[in-house]
Amino acid sequence: MCLFCKIVNKEIPSNIILEDDNFIAFHDINPKAPVHILAIPKVHVDSFNEVSGEMMSNMTDFIQKIAQEVKIEESGYRVITNIGDNGGQEVKHLHFHVLGGAKLKWGHF
Ligand code: 5GP
Ligand code: ZN
């Protein structure tokens, strides 16, 4: 079972912010911004390459709820999903980084 499936199953503890039947959001263990949350589907999906439009639609609603919950929807934030080797994906379970709480830098390789 992959690392994030274990987090879904609560076999590995995480700091959960929001959870519903299909998704879970928790704090990244190594934050790259003052707010750094990971949003994942409970079912295992390898990456954005495999996600359905229906799941993405629900994921959008879930991420919007996260932004409201941690009060970054007005100040702004960034949503990123890394895909494959060139994308820098380390955990092969679809996840969206939700980053905020400060003015974020942009534009480096
Ligand atoms: P990726 O590089 O795959 O896009 O992002 C994986 C993210 O998962 C990284 O930001 C990393 O800090 C985070 N991460 C890795 N292992 C754990 C863990 O055990 N718990 C939590 N909360 N985050 C983790
Ligand atoms: Zn998984």
From TrEMBL:
Q: Which PANTHER family match?
A: HISTIDINE TRIAD HIT PROTEIN (PTHR23089)
Q: Which organism encodes this protein? A: Sulfurimonas gotlandica (strain DSM 19862 / JCM 16533 / GD1)
Full protein name: Histidine triad (HIT) protein
Q: Which SUPFAM superfamilies does this chain map to?
A: HIT-like (SSF54197)
Question: Where do the catalytic residues lie?
Answer: H95
Q: Where does motif Histidine triad motif map?
A: 93-97
Q: Which InterPro entries match?
A: Histidine_triad_CS (IPR019808), Histidine_triad_HIT (IPR001310), HIT-like (IPR011146), HIT-like_sf (IPR036265)
Which molecular-function annotation in GO is an example for this chain? catalytic activity
HIT domain sequence ranges = 3-109
